[in-house]
Specification:
Layout: E1 4-11, E2 21-27, E3 33-37, H1 44-52, E4 59-64, E5 67-68, E6 79-82, H2 94-104, H3 109-123, H4 138-150, E7 156-160, H5 168-185, E8 188-193, H6 196-202, E9 205-210, E10 213-218, H7 220-225, H8 230-235, E11 242-251, E12 254-259, E13 262-265, H9 271-274, E14 281-286, E15 292-293, E16 302-308, E17 311-314, E18 318-325, E19 328-335, E20 345-351, E21 355-358
Parallel strand pairs: 3-8, 3-9, 6-7, 7-8
Antiparallel strand pairs: 1-2, 1-4, 4-5, 9-10, 11-12, 11-14, 12-13, 14-21, 15-20, 16-20, 17-18, 18-19
The chain binds adenosine-5'-triphosphate (ATP) and magnesium ion.
């Protein structure tokens, strides 16, 4: 039931270098599954290693269950970490690999057996306990690595990109299994990934990191629906949000944003937020799935736009359409039965509620 709390945590490797983790603050709830999400090099592993005690904290505080752990040895922190490269002992079978830390801790044989059995059941590797790592598939090895951590019954589990070595299909399968297992595990988990789908499906909350700074901390839904800035808006959601330059106007009492090839009427509730920005440039954000065939338009605000179909990629129920608006490449996601072949043009509608606006100077959401 341990909770991890980071307070203004900074990490600098060299005195003159910019911080790799910059004033990161986040307080985990009990048994929360917290995801650290961000591009390569943004400081995810460093944050994780500081929580585990494998890296010192330059300034700030890390607390686990209310206790400051900055100066505690890793073994005294009540954390179990699963590393990206799962490093199993090749000469030991699965059961011995999983029980290694328990034997070191001198638990009774019965207790070790019980814990390994519980973890093996949870991970569905009961049949594999006598095999050596070389006799396992990648996904099975991955599960053994996770099993080795969860037998430890630590208060906090740290997973650093545990699925990154798997192919796309196995990755999806393991992701679903982790999602199922996390309910049974009922522990505090900090989970690092650069895969936003993994983050969205697993996390109670997600910390979006860029250059060592938290851009936004929130539930998957909050990040998707109300991104605080253009970075988060572009990072959460696949395919990513489209961004177009536009200008805000008020004509005959109607609030609009227009640009090359589009003009969207905005809902009244945006009036307050855009006050003082009339005739000013903004960045207009529209998610690929927000484009609907014009015939299906049923909102008061928004606008129509005619777009060429440059490429149409069939992916099953939906199709990804590459198009161009005002000279910029945009991506649309539409139902396949509505998709036209490349070379045609289609009329679309975007609802005013689906239009995001950002300040072009600082990227903040308007
Ligand atoms: N021991 C170190 N000494 C100096 N710089 C380091 C050290 N460890 C990490 N860094 C730097 O800190 C930054 C963050 O690294 P970190 O490993 O935390 O990134 P990450 O978000 O985990 O990236 P990835 O997704 O690629 O694993 C990088 O620029 C990296 O080069
Ligand atoms: Mg890393």
């Amino acid at each position: 039931m341990s909770r991890v709390c980071l307070i203004d945590v900074c990490k600098t490797f060299a005195a003159a270098a910019p911080p790799v983790v910059d004033k990161l603050s986040v307080e985990m709830a009990e048994n929360e599954f917290l995801v650290l999400l961000g591009p390569s090099g943004c400081g995810k592993s460093t944050t994780m290693r500081m929580i585990a005690g494998l890296e010192t904290v330059t300034s700030g505080e890390i607390r686990i269950d209310g206790r400051v752990v900055n100066d505690l040895e890793p073994k005294d922190r009540d954390v179990a970490m699963v590393f990206q490269d799962y490093a199993l002992y090749p000469h030991m079978n699965v059961a011995r690999n999983m029980s290694f830390s328990l034997r070191l801790a001198r638990l009774s044989a019965d207790e070790i057996k019980r814990r390994v059995a519980v973890a093996a059941k949870m991970l569905d590797i009961e049949e594999l306990l006598n095999r050596k790592p070389a006799q396992l598939s990648g996904g099975q090895r991955q599960r053994v690595a996770i099993g080795r951590a969860i037998v430890r019954d630590a208060g906090v589990f740290l997973f650093d990109e545990p699925l990154s070595n798997l192919d796309a299909r196995l990755r999806g399968q393991m992701r679903d299994e982790l999602a199922l297992m996390r309910r049974e595990l009922n522990k505090s988990v900090v989970y690092v990934t650069h895969d936003q789908i993994e983050a969205m499906t697993l996390g109670d909350r997600i910390v979006v990191l860029s250059d060592g700074r938290a851009q936004q901390i929130g539930t998957p839904e909050a990040l998707y629906k109300r991104p605080t800035n253009q970075f988060v808006a572009g990072f959460i959601g696949t395919p990513p949000m489209n961004f177009l330059p536009g200008e805000l106007r008020e004509t005959d009492g109607e609030l609009t944003v227009d640009g090359d090839g589009f003009c969207f009427a905005l809902p009244d509730r945006m009036r307050e937020r855009v006050s003082g920005r009339h005739r000013r440039e903004v960045v207009v954000g529209v998610r690929p799935a927000a484009f609907m065939p014009a015939a299906e338009a049923r909102a008061d605000t928004g606008g129509r736009l005619k777009l060429p179909v440059l490429v149409s990629e069939y992916v099953g129920a939906s199709s990804i359409v590459i198009s161009r608006c005002g000279g910029r490449r945009i991506v649309l996601e539409i139902r396949s039965d509505n998709a036209l072949p490349a070379g045609d043009s289609m009329e679309f509608f975007v609802a005013g509620e689906a239009v995001y606006l950002f300040d072009p100077e600082n990227g903040q959401a308007i």
